[in-house]
Amino acid sequence: MSLQDALDLAQQKDLDLVEVSATADPPVCRILDYGKLRYLHAKKVKESRKSQKSTTMREVRFRPNIGAHDLEAKTRKVKQLLDEGAKVRVAVFFRGREVTHPELGMTLLKRVAEQVKDEARLERPPAMEGRALAIILTPTSSKGDKKPDEVNNAQA
Questions:
Q1: Residue ranges matching CATH 3.10.20.80 in the chain
Q2: Contacts of 51 (CB under 8 A, 6+ apart)
Q3: Phi then psi for 89, rounded to 5 degrees?
Q4: Mean pLDDT over residues 114-137, rounded?
């Protein structure tokens, strides 16, 4: 069918002539509603984005000579972030000559990891990053992904 005949046929049906495969010999075209095609494609893309899970990386900073109460408070914050479904980077920052004693940071990170072992698993072991010693914790279960009605059903 010639191009002009195809255009006339599409115009009679009040539709669009859309080129499907330009590389084929002869090129392949279809008569369809292009606006509807774009709408359905956008809807499919939006739906696929809904099913994707995005994980956020949060950070909690410690110091090597942190007090017991401050350690408990920050550990509670780490647990809360893990319950929300976020990955948590726990970092111990060293200032000045503190960097000569990385074992203090290592014991601190081990204590934090031990306290949250039920809620998280260690994704990356302790590693020095400049003047900071850091680990990354990921939630073991996706508690933050529950919908409100699932939470209510779980409590009943």
A1: 3-51
A2: none
A3: -100, 115
A4: 90
